[in-house]
Amino acid sequence: MSFPKGFLWGGATAANQFEGGWNEDGKGDSVCDHMTGGTVSAPRYFTNTINEEKYYPSHEAVDFFHRYKEDIALMAEMGFGVYRLSINWTRIFAKGEEETPNQKGLDFYRSVFEECKKYGIEPLVTISHYELPYHLMDQYNGWTNRKCIDFFLNYCKVLFMEYKDLVKYWLTFNEINCLVMGVGDILSAGIKCEDSPAQVLGLPSTKEQLTNRYQALHHQFLASARAVKLGHEINPEFQIGCMVAGGSVYPYTCNPDDVLKAQQDMRMNYLCGDVQVRGEYPHFTKRMFEELGISIIMEEGDLAILKEGKVDFYSFSYYMSTCSTVDTEALKASGNVIMGVNNPYLKSSEWGWQIDPKGLRYLLNELYGRYQLPMMVVENGLGAIDKMEADGKIHDHYRIEYLREHIKQMEEAIKDGVDLIAFTPWGCIDLVSVSTGEMKKRYGFVYVDKDNDGNGTLDRVRKDSFYWYKDVIASNGKML
Length: 480
What we know:
By secondary structure, the protein is α/β, with parallel strands linked by helices. Helices cover about 35% and strands about 15% of the residues.
C-alpha cells in the first residue's frame, strides 16, 4: 500500500451546518443564519429579517456547540488524526467590524481545540466557510467592498494569536471558486439582495452580477494573501492553504470543439489555484474578462500582495465529474446546462451527482502537476438517505463502497507521484446540507436523529461505515 506514514485521516464539518448555538454567548447572525430550510424541489430562501415562523437549519444545526466533547470522542474512537472544522466569524466578531473580539467565542474554540489535542487530533481550521457576518452584507454589500479585507485581517490576527500553539493547519476561504460559479452571491460574497430563493444555479447572470462576483473574488484573493503573510509572521510553523471546489471535466465527444470546451471548463480548478499558489492571475483571464464584458478594479500594489501571500498547500473538495459539450441539444436533454452532460459510463447518486472515483485520481494528477505542492482532499463523500433498520442500526454499505473506491484511487495517485497528505471526508457526523438545507441528505459515519423540519432527539448512532472507516484508519488504508 502507498499511503505514507503520518498520512492524516479524518473528517470535515462546517460551523454553519454543524455547530448551532446561533445566538448564544454573544454570537451575531451570519448570512447563513438568514437561510431557511428547503429541499431539492423547494429551494432554501434567504430572508433579510429572521422570521420566527420559519425554520432556519443553522440555528441549531446538530448542536455541536453543546455536544462537542461527545462528537470529538466519536472522532477519536474512529482514530482521526485530523479534524477539519470552521470557525463562525460572528462568534468572534458579532458584526464583523468590531475591534475587540468576543471572549466567550474565543473560549469556546479554545475548548474545542484542546479537546482535539487531548486525543491527538490535529485541527485543520477553515477561517471563512459560508458565514460572513450579516452586518457586513447589509452595511457594506459584502466582499464587493474592499473594507472587508481589513475586517477579515483583524479577524485572522485574533485567531492566529489566540491559537498559535493549538492550530498548525489553516484554510483561508472554503471553496473560494464557488463565488463566481453562480451559487456564491449570498454565501460566499455576501452580496446584498432582496428576500429570494437561495438557489441561483443555472439562472442567467448580468454583467453587473459578474462584475460584482469577480470584484469580490479579487478582494478575497487579497485578503487570503495578506492572511498567509500575517500568519507566517505570527508563527512560521503555520501551514496555510487554499481550498477550491474541485471537479474533473471530460469532453463529451472527441469533437475538437468539445475538447476545447472541456479544457476551458477545467479552468474552474485553476483560476483560484493559480492566484493563490503562483501568486498571479493565469494567462486566460485577460480574454475571459473581455468576453464576459467585465473589468475589475485593482489598486497599485495588489499584484505584489498576491505574490507575497502564496499558500503552503492546495486543498480541494471532490464529489463528481462532468462532461462538457457545445451540443446545445445534448445540454437541453441532460437538464443540467451549467454542470454539463451526464457521463454514460457512470452511475449517479440519489441527488444526481455522478460517481467517478477515477476522476479523483485524474484531478489529483492534474493539480499536482500544475502546482507541485502538498495536496489535501478535504471534502469527499456520498450524500444519501440513511434509514435506521429494525435492529437499530444503519447499514450504509453504499457509502462504504463509494469511499472505498475513492480511497483506492487516492492510493493510485500517490503511486503516480502525487504528494497527498490528508483525507477528510465531508460531514463525518451528519449535518445540514448547505445546498438544500435538509437533513435527509446524509454524509456521516455517525447518524444524527433529526429530520428536515428540525425534529428529533439529536442522539448520535454509529453507522456501519463508522466501524469500516475505523479499520481503514488503523491500517493506514490497507483494510478497505
